[in-house]
Write a structure and sequence with these properties.
52% of the residues lie in helices and 12% in strands. By secondary structure, it is α/β, with parallel strands linked by helices. The longest helix has 21 residues, at 98-118.
Length: 444
């Protein structure tokens, strides 16, 4: 992030997301502000709070993709959760603090992976020595005889060369592996009790001695297992935990989707009665509090929260005022037009036309789309979205699958064939579905 200016961040997001410039600018500024905060004096650094963002727009316009690409760009711990999955404390379901515990778990895996890659070379060397000990156990010299060190060394080096060449990969060896703890029967209902169960498993695991068992595996599989064990020994677990918690506290991102589903008005009855309760439980998490995890206490003061919702039925003002105040930045995302669909199909690095071309190329099929075919697909997507439900760019998935159904099915028998999709073909294959509104509601 030292080199990434907001303009460069937006340029990177443009590679995958079409349009929505205001939303890209907002998240780019928020990400750059985190970098700026890290360079402030210690006293002032703690006073600068993240400016949480709420994205308002219909489904399928890029809200989730913007947040996901942003986190990948920043290499920050990122988790996407649905607000509708959580319940008020006291009800059956997951409490809102579990999203922070999940974020910490993800950060632990991220940091552990980085540390493991850093010691990978050393772990391979140690694993190689262990495997050589299995293949050529050190022999005990007879009483009164002197061991022939040179001969043993030569034999070991020959085995090492064959091991590195892969000549011994199919040989079966017997290794000792750590036995996993006994599975615990879920007696606590499984709802809202994740932290208690994790702590109980960890406590019992520490009380019981570490058990090992012997396994017979192929040498290539043994190499993977032994390398992983050696890497785990080289990685300092406390260092991993400390760094992961620091990352979560200073650069963690929580994408809170479907926030409009908990925007219930006061006086609601029935199953929606806990909506406002979920909002109240979110207040301290978003504002900043300390959450207890099995790795230690985690403060949420500087975690960036990005909320999103379509707000078809409700509106942002239906959220309780305290929660509205904790999302000071509001960005409205526009509905996608026909021209946007044309760009989505062709411009991004992960454009659908590029994906299908690459997929069918694995079967030896040369798939190509003419410009008028792309325009026709975009036109049909716009028409169906207007006539049925507007699901944004996700409509392109259903249309493309319907269009390429026959080619995808017969592709294994079409090696070396060039298939060109033209506008006339698109109209012929999808015309009946477009004209029959009842059918299109089921198929598209």
């Amino acid at each position: 992030m030292d080199q990434m200016t907001p303009r460069q961040i937006v340029a990177e997001l443009d590679k995958y997301i079409i349009g929505q410039h205001d939303a890209k600018r907002a998240v780019a500024i928020a990400l750059r502000n985190r970098w700026r905060r890290q360079r402030l004096p210690a006293g002032l650094r703690d006073e600068v709070a993240p400016k949480n963002i709420i994205m308002i727009g219909p489904t399928g316009v890029g809200k989730t993709e913007i947040a996901r690409r942003l986190a990948r760009l920043a290499e920050a711990p990122f988790i996407k959760v649905e607000a509708s999955k959580y319940t008020e404390v006291g009800y059956v379901g997951r409490d809102v603090e579990s999203m922070i515990r999940d974020l910490v778990e993800l950060a632990i895996n991220m940091v552990r992976g980085e540390k493991t890659r850093a010691v990978e070379q050393r772990a391979r060397e140690l694993a190689e020595e262990r495997l050589l000990d299995l293949l050529l156990p050190p022999a005990r010299p007879a009483f009164g005889a002197t061991p022939e060190a040179g001969a043993v060394h030569d034999t070991r080096e020959k085995l090492r060369a064959r091991l590195r060449d892969g000549a011994l990969d199919d040989r079966t060896v017997e290794i000792e592996v750590a036995q996993r703890g006994l599975p615990m029967i879920d007696l606590m209902g499984g709802h809202g009790m994740e932290e208690m169960q994790d702590n109980l498993k960890e406590m019992l695991g520490n009380l019981l001695p570490q058990r090992t068992r012997r396994r017979k595996v192929k040498l290539h599989e043994a190499r993977r297992i032994v390398t992983q064990e050696e890497a785990d020994k080289l990685v300092d677990k406390e260092e991993v935990t400390g760094e992961a918690i620091a990352r979560v506290e200073n650069s963690g991102i929580v994408f809170l989707d479907e926030i409009d589903k908990i925007a219930g008005r006061e006086g609601a009855h029935g199953p929606d009665v806990s909506r406002e309760g979920v909002q109240r439980d979110l207040l301290p998490i978003v504002e900043g509090c300390t959450v207890s995890t099995k790795y230690g206490l985690v403060r949420t003061d500087h975690i960036l929260f990005i909320a999103a919702g379509a707000f078809h039925v409700s509106k942002p003002s239906d959220l309780i005022p305290e929660l509205q105040g904790r999302f000071p930045l509001r960005v409205e995302l526009a509905s996608l037009t026909e021209q946007d669909f044309v760009r989505i199909l062709t411009e991004p690095e992960n454009a659908l036309t590029k994906q299908y071309t690459a997929l069918l190329a694995t079967e030896g099929v040369d798939l190509a789309f003419t410009p008028d075919a792309v325009e026709e697909i975009a036109k049909i997507a716009t028409t169906v979205n207007q006539a049925t439900e507007n699901i944004g760019a996700r409509r392109l998935y259903t249309i493309m699958e319907r269009l390429l159904d026959e080619v995808s099915f017969e592709a294994p028998h079409m090696a070396g064939v060039r298939v060109e999709i033209a506008g006339q073909q698109v109209r012929q294959q999808l015309a009946s579905i477009i004209t029959n509104q009842d059918l299109s509601r089921y198929i598209l």
